[in-house]
Write a structure and sequence with these properties.
- InterPro entries: Cas10-Cmr2_palm2 (IPR054767), Rev_trsase/Diguanyl_cyclase (IPR043128).
- GO terms for molecular function: nucleotide binding.
- By secondary structure, the chain is an alpha+beta fold.
- It is 50% helix and 17% strand.
- The protein contains 20 helices and 16 strands.
- The strands form five sheets. The chain has a six-stranded mixed β-sheet.
- Helix 2 packs across helix 6 and helix 16 runs antiparallel to helix 19.
- It is globular, with a radius of gyration of 25 Å.
- 41% of the residues are buried.
- About 1% of the residues have low confidence.
């Protein structure tokens, strides 16, 4: 008889991003990464109770999910009893949902048992969990969070969770996530910024990037069908290999994209000790990535990451295709991303929600079949629902026509004639924000579009005339880039009820421009 244990960590995003202090965000990321690490699982001891776990029995430990095979009942019961308590006391605010099932290695119903475990985990997530730092009327509160005060440092009271995050920062300083970024991430750990004001560009803008793989659930279903007649051991090895290969592909993509896009910053930090690299990973788990970085580099990093994720998953999963005849994985995976630009002091939990909403919208628009991204510059004080925001703010609706100001998602590769391509958008951005081009007239055109399409067209005709009369403006290049972007021209900037001009102006206000 064997025991299959499953655990899911809930509240990860809230735990990491409930503060705007970068040191606490980094410390929280380190804590979460440590919970799922093999090092932690192998050293799982409490007082005189020591539970040794065979590394080969750890089937999955990424993305806040843990799956472990136990060979005896005593060890399984001990781990089930002690593990959630230890985690929740070590990371206040985190909740562990867990379940366990029994099975026989000789049976042919292992996949049914896996489904049973997942159903039990879903049920466990719906159970009420009580916070360990419950607030009582007589307990002093930490002013910044409103939670019970635990410790005082330099006249400021901290709650238990905030103190734990700072403790993680002091002892490890995000060592585990930097390990995932290869030698440069580990070697130059002290060169990364530790303050949010060092992260922002000269317009005090930062970017929160959230990327997620496409169709993972569907791929797992296809994998299950392909493994129906396979032995229990081979099924476990297949899932274990899939998990490790996805992790390897994601980690490598983050590492390579970082080293390429931030090469200048890395080199500068080596010669100037006062300069800090404006980049900070907060989640790298499975196919899920969340990064905070300088706004000027966000689009370039995301584009390169998505390109590398496609390439790396194709290379890594080729082993799975070969060993288990899983042809569905032959082409690798695609991913979508959302980039939320905001002021360095904007509440982080709002910005993360926006980045995730953008990622979801990109997935829906692409039907999860191609790598693409959406971005948005947050300028309001609060953000509740992106779809609602689009209907309220990003649609110009007059009596005759409705024009959508969201032109994306922007696709990474030319596949199935999908448009618009990100490369074409960036060329159009460069052409329409060139120092000799009157970009301000594009803002005037958008303003007039609210009131009178006829008058707005007059503005475009006038803009086209000015551009052709100015020898410093290359109208041929502008025409070619707009045509590639979506059959557009200077006198016709709306295609299929959408215009890219708002996105171009957003990027201009974020990255500087004129």
């Amino acid at each position: 008889m064997a025991y299959l244990y499953g655990a899911s960590i809930q509240g990860i995003q809230g735990f990491i991003f409930e503060t705007n202090k970068l040191k606490e965000i980094v410390g929280a990321s380190d804590i979460i990464e440590g919970i799922c690490s093999l090092e932690f699982l192998n050293k799982f001891c409490r007082d005189d109770t020591c539970i040794k776990i065979d590394v080969n029995n750890v089937l999955r430990n990424a993305g806040g999910n843990i799956r472990i095979k136990f060979d005896d009942e005593t060890t399984a019961k001990k781990f089930t009893r002690e593990f959630p308590k230890m985690i929740m006391q070590g990371a206040y605010g985190i909740v562990i949902s867990q379940a366990i099932i029994t099975y026989n290695d000789d049976d042919n119903n292992y996949l049914d048992k896996v489904d049973e475990l997942e159903q039990k985990l879903k049920a466990a997530r719906n159970k009420m969990n009580y916070p360990l730092d419950a607030k009582l009327a007589l307990v002093k509160q930490a002013p910044r969070t409103g939670k019970p005060a635990f410790e005082k440092k330099v006249k400021e009271f901290y709650d238990k969770a905030s103190w734990q995050k700072l403790g993680s920062d002091a002892s490890g300083w995000l060592e585990m996530l930097l390990d995932k970024m290869g030698q440069k991430g580990r070697k130059y750990s002290n060169n990364f910024t530790r303050d949010m004001n060092e992260m922002s560009n000269n317009k005090n803008k930062i970017a929160i990037i959230h990327a997620d793989g496409n169709k993972m659930g569907l791929m797992l279903q296809k994998m299950k069908k392909s493994l129906v007649s396979t032995s229990t051991k081979d099924i476990q090895n297949a899932y274990k290999d899939l998990s490790s290969q996805i992790v390897s592909a994601t980690n490598s993509a983050v590492q390579q994209a970082f080293e390429e896009i931030f090469e200048e910053e890395i080199n500068t930090s080596l010669t100037d000790s006062a300069f800090k690299i404006p980049f900070r990973p907060t989640i790298i788990g499975g196919d899920d990535v969340t990064v905070i970085c300088n706004a000027d580099k966000a689009l370039s990093f995301t584009k390169r990451y998505l390109e590398l994720f496609e390439k790396n998953t194709k290379d890594e999963l080729s082993k799975l295709v070969k060993n288990y005849s899983l042809d569905d994985f032959k082409k690798g995976l695609t991913a979508c991303a959302g980039i939320a630009y905001c002021n360095e002091k904007f509440p982080f939990h709002y910005a993360v929600d926006v980045a995730e909403a953008l990622c979801v919208r990109a997935k829906e628009a692409s039907k999860r079949e191609a790598s693409c991204l959406l971005f948005h510059n947050i300028q309001g004080s609060a953000f509740i629902n992106f779809d609602q925001y689009i209907s309220n703010e990003l649609i110009i609706d007059n009596e005759k026509t409705a024009t959508h100001l969201v032109y994306g998602p922007y696709y990474i590769r030319k596949k199935d004639n999908r448009k618009p391509l990100l490369s074409d958008f960036l060329k159009a951005y460069d052409a329409l924000t060139h120092e000799s081009f009157p970009t301000a007239r594009l803002r005037e055109w958008l303003s007039q579009l609210h009131h009178s399409p006829e008058l707005a067209q007059h503005y475009l005709d006038r803009l086209d005339f000015i551009a052709r009369e100015d020898s410093n403006i290359d109208t041929v290049v502008i025409s070619e880039t707009l045509e590639k972007l979506g059959n557009l021209s200077l006198t016709s900037l709306i295609s299929n009820g959408r215009t890219p001009i708002h996105d171009i102006l957003q990027l201009t206000s974020v990255q500087g421009g004129k």
